[in-house]
Write a structure and sequence with these properties.
Elements lengths: L1 H20 L30 E7 L2 E9 L4 E4 L7 E2 L10 E6 L7 E5 L14
InterPro entries: Sialidase_sf (IPR036278), WD40/YVTN_repeat-like_dom_sf (IPR015943)
Protein name: Glycosyl hydrolase
Organism: marine metagenome
Amino acid sequence: MILRRTLAALVVSVSTLLSFSFPTYGLEDTIDAVLFDKMEYRFVGPYRGGRSVAVSGVKGNPQLYYMGAAGGGVWKTENAGISWKPLSDKHFAVGSIGSIAVAPSDPNVIYVGTGEGPIRGVTTSHGE
């Protein structure tokens, strides 16, 4: 028992001493600002996107995905998300898209559900 306590105290003492014995002069995290000179902000869309709660891929095509945005709109990518195009603009004017599914028989047919479920699964209101 005494040996365990002595060994533990020795390990803690040596660890503490070693942590102070190696100076870290000149090891600051500095990044040369020149690296960022040519970087420019670019918007990659989707434009009305916001957060997404509905995403569906197409079996057998890892490049093709559909996305429903909580802020509104259904979007499609054919290059694994590098670019997106809106599908729902001028077709229906609703707020959020809560679910989306691709028909197993035809990847060009998608089913879209509007609205969202209650936050954290709470289904009662006004304390009832």
